[in-house]
Amino acid sequence: MALSIQQSYHHSVAVKMNGQQMGTKRGYTFIQANRTWLPKILLLWVMAMALFSLTIYNGMDADNRVRRKEVLSSMCDQRARMLQDQFNVSVNHVHALAILVSTFHYYKNPSAIDQETFAEYTARTAFERPLLSGVAYAQRVVNAERLEFERQHGWTIKTMEREPSPIRDEYAPVIFSQETVSYIESLDMMSGEEDRENILRARATGKAVLTGPFRLLGSHHLGVVLTFPVYKSKLPPSPTVAQRIEASAGYLGGAFDVESLVENLLGQLAGNQAILVNVYDITNSSDLLIMYGHQNQDGDMSLVHESKLDFGDPFRRHLMTCRYHEKAPTSWTALTTTFLFFVIGLLVGYILYEAAIHIVKVEDDFHEMQDLKVQAEAADVAKSQFLATVSHEIRTPMNGILGMLALLLDTDLSSTQRDYAQTAQVCGKALIALINEVLDRAKIEAGKLELEAVPFHIRSIVDDVLSLFSEKSRNKGIELAVFVSDKVPEIVVGDPGRFRQIITNLVGNSVKFTERGHTFVKVHLYEHAKATADTKADTCLIGGPNESVVISGSQKFKTLSGCEAADDQNSWDVFKHLSDEDFRFDASINVMTSNEASENITLMVCVEDTGIGIPLKAQSRVFMPFVQADSSTSRHYGGTGIGLSISKCLVELMGGQISFISRPEVGSTFSFTAVFGTCKKNAFTKMEKRNAEDLPSGFRGLKALVVDGKPVRAAVTRYHLKRLGILAEVVSNLKVAAGSCGKNGSLTCGSKIQPDIILVEKDTWISGEDGVSSVWKLDWKQNGHVFKFPKMILLATNITNSDFDKAKAAGFADTVIMKPLRASMVAACLLQVLGMGKKRSQGKCMPNGSSFLQSLLCGKKILVVDDNRVNRRVAAGALKKFGADVECADSGKEALKLLQLPHTFDACFMDIQMPEMDGFEATRRIRQMESQANDQMNGESMVEGGTARKGQWHIPILAMTADVIHATHDECLKCGMDGYVSKPFEEENLYQAVARFFDSKSTLKS
Fold first, then answer.
1. C-alpha gyration radius of the chain
2. Residue 456, SS3?
3. Of 274, 284, 680, 719, which residue has the fewest beta carbons closer than 10 angstroms?
4. Contact predicate 976/924, CB 8 Å
5. Residue 380: which residues within 8 A CB-CB, separation 6 or more?
């Protein structure tokens, strides 16, 4: 069986892991799907940024070149314009001088001009001709007049080479010259071929004519000669060429030193060093004649601008070219801008690349976390499966042990044997409780713990919890008490088992860690308790009453036991305010007067103790599972450290919160809130009737006097008496009690009631015993009548035989009410003291009692199916005890054979985990057989046309298993089972499951 369980366990874990892995297929994003392209994309991005930056640089450089060209054009045009303007001015002056010679040399007779006059005049007016190196006048001489001309001037006409001029038709010897060019006197200007053409062209056109560039005599600078015709008579308005030739008397020429002219011009302009200027004579386009500059000068040859020059000679064409002296400087603005764009592009690309890498990393981490989550969930499933398997293997033999012990205790045993058997049963139940805690933690972690929502008596739950620890608290001598506010409804809707589990854990811890003082459980409405605490806090701010008093040199606190508590908010003033309001609150009003649907209320439960407290360093991990304050605590007190963790989870499932206040060596106060529903009026009334049967109603109208010096403890006693309908008054000591009763049974003015019973706390009686010993000897006779002295009952946490004898001698009843007080226990004691003991048994006659179960199960034939022989014996023995006819089967297959239709079984208990065929499969097959049989029976009835009853084959099948994690109620119902019982089961739970089903079945048949 264990082998099959392990195999199914491993199989289920593997299936779940595969299912989870398949359910979490990785969904890659675009970036992660193309992660290998990221470096390539980054490289392409860098290249694109480089290309884009280069484009920007080229664009900015082109703009710079355009601006540079525009500047060069502007400068070159400016220089050409200035040169042309100045040249034209000089030409005009030369023209004016030609007119002057014509007028004063030829029109006057005798001539008014000679060499001396001409030289002086031209020298004095040289400032008007700054571009001319000198001017001269050459007279027209024909060959016939040569000899006369030479004789008249006294020199021979010479050529440019200063040789006597050969015979020609016509000569043009210089007769007047400026001092600067006096060396050309007597030279024939027509001796040179180009000069002759220029003179003839000037004579024919009547305009200025320029020669080509040549080296000027004397300066060796490049220059040109400007020639104007001089007429000896006035010309008609539109003279012909012949008329001009006929009227020509000579030629006035001026030598332009072009190099000096341009140098002077450039010197006058700013930035003359920035550009290089060349001036060309481009009359012959195939042979350009340079007039200024050098052809092979250095400079930026990549950018040249040309500007045309017009010196007034239509035959001659001139050109000025300009270029920068230096090549274009590096454009740092373009470089800087380009570099910045490139750097910004690189940064953007790097940021995007790093962002993509980060996204990939995050997604990788996410998928890794998904894998880890799947593994963790699989591990959690494996842990849950392991716990289920271990719990099954442990609970199965424990079921046999506890079942056999229960059967053993039903036999005749000696006192020693019974004690041994009961001890073993208690130890077994403790082990089962530990297993249940571990499984509860596993179910909480797996999220499979669900809460019930059923009506239950909250006061009965709390009383039952206190009864569990009554023996231990008495042995330790500590006070253990409970107080439930009357504002809390008698019946609430919730999960009683889990509520009991929380309080049991907190009270158990308090009792375990408390060696003196008390453990006090208080239940209030959360809103009421909070409002009262806030009021008390305001009172303390303005100076409230002192919380403690000093008695006999020791400090006593107003708490349940007089010991200091950790939480100052749970003081007597707060508790008095709550309890006074409760005692003024009529219990009958507690029944809901509205027929409205149930509403939610929030309860606050406080468990206060005066134990060892929790060390400050350990308080932060109190609610961590499997953790205790320190290792010494675990060794000294025992425990697993899982209880508070489970309690916290349960409280949160109930919609509340849990907290604590703890002071080392003072104590701890744990408080939690929980949300419950309230019942409708009709449901509440039914539950109230059941509650009234638990607590006898014969005490209503009785009056009691509670003698207790500790007000909190007295209020608790008064609370339990009030639950029984007894009107109680509290006094602090025996003297006050004696004074209240008065002599001869008369009441004093300070007393409110004439008590029927007097309940005295043991420590109050012992401390005041000597002072009131004579009280009990009073004569209770008045007017011939004898007054019955009230019954005196002692309240004690523990009492020795000597103290008990003293109490009896002092007049106390034989019955001592032992603490912790519970309403049912107080009622039982009062019934015994007041002689009403036989009435008590009437309250225990419930429909679910053993007699009812025996009458219900007697004669029923039940099939028990379990592969474990011990479990079969336990179940069979428990059912046979109540008269059931039990038959056993050790496998699902054998159960199928026994349940073949028709059969005579009334019910079947089916184990879930069995080899070969488990309980689920067996149940499905049984239901399939029943369904086929019912369909066949219904079909036959329809064919016959009769009114035969419908087929009702359905045997009740109840699941029983030790696997409390997977064998859930829903799974059982899904496969066709009718109920569920967990092993090891208590006999009452087993019987009630069957009884409820038979009850519903009998009701259905009726």
1. 66
2. strand
3. 284
4. yes
5. 445, 446
**Terminal Cα-to-Cα distance of the chain (whole angstroms):** 43
Strands 132-139 and 174-177, sheet pairing: antiparallel
Q: Cα–Cα distance between 249 and 789 in angstroms, integer?
A: 184
pLDDT averaged over 10-residue windows placed end to end, the chain, 1006 residues: 45 46 58 83 91 91 89 89 86 90 86 89 88 89 90 90 89 91 88 86 88 75 87 87 90 86 76 77 85 74 88 86 84 89 92 89 89 86 72 76 83 84 81 75 72 87 86 89 91 90 91 91 86 60 45 63 80 67 45 49 93 88 72 56 85 93 92 89 50 66 88 90 89 74 48 77 75 44 55 86 83 84 85 65 38 69 90 84 87 92 90 86 92 84 50 85 59 84 66 62 37
Element (H, E) at 586: none
- Tokens 């003279």 sit at which residue? 239
Locate 714 and state its tokens. 């007295």
What span, in angstroms and rounded, lies between the C-alpha atoms of 118 and 178? 7
- CA nearest neighbour of 871 among 202, 407, 247, 523: 407
915: closest CA among 975, 868, 951?
868
With CA atoms as reference, report the closest residue to 758 among 692, 810, 799, 819.
810
> Within 10 A of 920 (CB to CB), how many other CB atoms are there?
21
d(CA 706, CA 63): 112
Q: How far apart are CA 870 and CA 866, in angstroms?
A: 9
Q: How far apart are CA 608 and CA 564, in angstroms?
A: 11
- Pairwise CA distance, residues 806 & 232, whole Å: 182
Contacts of 771 (CB under 8 A, 6+ apart): 734, 735
Per DSSP, the residues of 832-864 read: HHTT-GGGGGGGG--TTSHHHHHHHHTT-EEEE
DSSP string, 77-128: HHHHHHHHHHHHHHHHHHHHHHHHHIIIIISSSS-S--HHHHHHHHHHTGGG
Tokens 């109208």 correspond to: 701
Asked if omega into 902 is within 30° of 0 (cis), the reply is: yes
Structure tokens at 73: 């054009």
User: Measuring CA to CA, how many Å separate 256 from each of 89, 132, 215, 909?
Assistant: 12, 5, 11, 141
CA distance 179 to 113: 15
Tokens of 998: 């038979």
3-class SS at 449? coil
The answer, yes or no, to whether the previous bond of 110 is cis (omega within 30 of 0) is yes
Select from 502, 522, 469, 523 the least CA-distant residue to 644: 502
Distance between CA atoms of 115 and 132, rounded to whole angstroms?
A: 19
Torsion region of 667: left, alpha or beta (phi above 0 gives left; psi -120 to 50 gives alpha) = left
Three-state SS at 533: helix
Rounded CA-CA distance 333/341 in Å is: 12
Instruction: With both helix axes pointing from N to C terminus, report the angle between 496-512 and 458-468 in degrees, rounded to the nearest 10.
Output: 40
Nearest to 755 by CA among 764, 765, 745: 745
Measure the CA–CA gap between 961 and 980, rounded to whole angstroms.
Answer: 8
- For 620, the token pair is 């932060």
Residue 759, CA atoms < 13 Å, CB-side half-sphere = 30
Does residue 900 sit in helix, strand or coil? coil
Distance separating alpha carbons of residues 863 and 957, to the nearest angstrom: 9
Q: Please give the model's pTM, rounded to 2 decimal places.
A: 0.54
Residue 368 burial (C-beta neighbours within 10 Å; 0-12, 13-18, 19+): exposed
Q: Tally the residues of the chain.
A: 1006
Looking up tokens 């005009």 gives 92
Report the C-alpha gap between 989 and 979 in whole angstroms: 12
Give the integer Cα–Cα distance in Å for 571 and 535. Answer: 13
CA distance 500 to 991: 23
